[in-house]
Structures are given as C-alpha cells and as structure tokens.
Design brief:
The chain is α/β, with parallel strands linked by helices. Helices cover 46% and strands 16% of the residues. It has 14 helices and twelve strands. Strands 1, 4, 5, 6, 9, 10, 11 and 12 form an eight-stranded parallel beta sheet that branches. Helix 11 crosses helix 12. The structure holds zinc ion. The site of zinc ion (ZN) has 5 residues, from loops.
C-alpha cells in the first residue's frame, strides 16, 4: 500500500481520536461486535524496505490491545459463539473475535502465549498447502526479488523493461508497481506464472518461505488441542477465489476443510477468503461457502458487525490491526466502529 494512502488513513484515525468524534459516534456505528484480523505477530525488524509490514504487529502491541479489550465493556468470544449470537440475535453485550490468517509460526511463538495469558479465544485460518510445504507465499517472494537486486528486467506486454531498484525509495516504488500489476492480472494462474518467472530468473526459492515461516501440522496440532483455539479453513492454495473458475473455487474451499480434518481431527466450520477484498471474494464465493455449510466466512472488507449481518454470515467484514498503525488509540478507534463507518459511508452491510 502506498505511503500516501497510509498517511491518509492515519490522519483519519488521529482526527477521529483527538476530536473525540469516535466516542460520540459510538451509538450509531458500533454495531454488535467486531472481528479483528491479524497476520504476523513478531518483534519489529530494522530493515527500511518492508513493503509487507502492514501484515505484522509486535507482541507488545498485541499485549496492549488485549489489555485494552479486557478492560473494555466487551466480550472476547470464539467464532462459534459469535455465530450463535448472530443467529439467535443475542446482542446483550458487544463482542470481539480475534482471528489470525495463514498460520505463521509466530502465531504459536509470539501471539499464542499472549492470547493464552488473557484467556482470549482466537481462530487461526490455515491454507493447507502451507503446512503441506507446497504453498507459494508470492507476496514475500516478490519482496525478496526487489530487496536482493538493484535492477529487474521484466517482460511487460511483450516488451523487455529494465526497472531500477537500487535505493530504498526505488525498491518501495517498484514493489508497489509490481504488486499492483500482478494483483490486476485477470487470473490467479497469470499472477503465479509472473512471480515464478521472476523467482527463477533472480534465484529466489519460493518454497523456502513456507518452510521458514509457516507452522507444520505438528505445530498446528499443539494449537488445535487448546479449547481457546478454533482452526478455520483458508483454502488449499491461498488463491483469490474470485479469479478462478467456480469448480476450482468450490474445491479449494471444500478440500481445505477435508485436509484439516484428516490432519488435525477437527472439521473447520469457519472460513476466511484469501486476500479477502472484493477482487478475491464476491457474491459467488459467499454463496458457495454457504452451500458448503460453513457457519461463517470472513472477508477483509473493513467493517464491524450489525444485526443485519445475520443474513450474510458468509460475507462478514473484519477490522485489520495494521502494522503501519500500531498505536493503541488507533485500535480503540477501529474497535469502536467509527473509522470503518466513515470509510464505508455509514453503510452497514456490504455483501454485493
Ligand atoms: Zn491469507
């Protein structure tokens, strides 16, 4: 995400906080609960080029957020309990669900001890190719290609282009451009092909990220054994489902559930759509998830939950704890529902 966009978001959060608006807006925008999204939880690294930093928060920040949530007038609940409350219309107390996508090893190492100490239920959504060591964490591969080189040559629209990435500023600019370009490609296959070609050309081992960063089945079994933990599905290959044929989308969702059941002995009832924005999950995916019998499915569309979401339990919005905005005051504004209300133009449900 561009620096400008991050600045705009941060300014908006600051305005809502320091004006006190987020507090006054609460009765109108808070809804009945919030599902929080996390990816990596690990200590900050000093590198100046960290284009994927929005996907990680520090253990210290998570600890601060948990202390705040525990002191606030909120219930910390599991996805099953959230599903019950939504289905039955039990909205006596506002709630928060904590969800962690992808199953990184730092979930076990850093996040789990903090969540356990606060007795906070949480869900981990697993793309099964990651513990199977077949996953392609292409966004990290792209980062590595740009980080380790000073120049990239790339075939774009049949023409060889030479792109400079010697300085940190050039690396940031090139990563944003490459990321935007591959995300704009029509199919997931095309995206994977471009990234594989780049990795082959610049000797980046895509498989290594999985080994190094993601939990294996034995580590996942440790988490799954804790009643605080819900294991959710996140497809097999972490594909943007809206960019694959319907048959593939359906089998990605269904197969991941079967693989998790075979490996961990628990059949996931909850799903997270990979990437999860509107280019990756739309009405077709919401319908398939419901047809497959998932109790809930979450997007990364920003928002809090309102009673009307009970008609859209496979199209739920979430609120991301973004690594670029690790201030407790931002988390308070986000949990209040004020920020997402402004971003969504005060529209409560967006399931189209
Ligand atoms: Zn993911």
């Amino acid at each position: 995400m561009s620096g400008l966009k991050q600045t705009v978001i941060r300014t908006g959060l600051e305005t809502l906080y320091f004006s006190g608006a987020y507090h006054m807006m609460r009765p109108f925008v808070a809804g009945v609960g919030v599902i929080l999204t996390l990816h990596h939880v690990r200590p900050a690294r000093p590198d100046r080029f960290q284009p994927n930093r929005l996907l990680e928060v520090t253990p210290r920040f998570l600890e601060d957020v948990l202390c705040y949530l525990r002191s606030a007038d909120l219930d910390l609940i599991s996805l099953d309990e959230m599903h019950r409350r939504m289905s039955e219309g039990d909205f006596r107390q506002r709630f928060v669900c904590i969800t962690i996508d992808d199953g990184y090893r730092d979930t076990l190492h850093w996040a789990y001890p903090i969540l356990r100490r606060h007795e906070a239920p949480f869900a981990v959504y697993i793309p099964t190719s990651f513990p199977d060591r077949l996953g392609e964490l292409w966004w990290l591969a792209l980062e590595a290609v740009v980080a380790r080189n000073t120049q990239i040559s790339l075939l774009i629209d049949g023409r060889e282009q030479i792109l400079d990435c010697g300085t940190v500023a050039e690396k940031r600019e090139l990563f944003d451009a490459l990321y935007g370009w591959v995300r704009s490609l029509a199919t997931e296959d095309e995206l994977r092909r471009v990234v594989r070609d780049l990795c082959a050309r610049y000797r980046v081992d895509v498989a290594a990220f999985c080994d190094e960063l993601c939990m294996g089945w034995d580590e996942l079994a440790k988490l799954a054994a804790d009643p605080l933990v819900t294991i959710g599905a996140h497809t097999v290959n972490h594909v943007m489902l809206a960019k694959v044929p319907e048959r593939t989308a359906r089998s990605e969702m269904d197969m991941s559930r079967s693989v998790i059941e075979a490996s961990l002995g628990v059949r996931p009832a909850h799903l997270s759509y990979p990437v999860g924005d509107r280019t990756s999950a739309g009405p077709r995916e919401f319908r398939i998830a419901a047809e497959l019998g998932f109790k809930t499915a979450v997007t990364t569309r920003p928002g809090v939950l309102f009673p009307s979401h009970r008609q859209h339990l496979t199209a739920l919005p979430r609120v991301s704890l973004n690594g670029e905005h690790q201030q407790l005051r931002y988390a308070r504004v986000l949990v209040s529902g004020a920020a997402t209300a402004v971003w969504n133009g005060f529209r409560q449900v967006d399931a189209a």
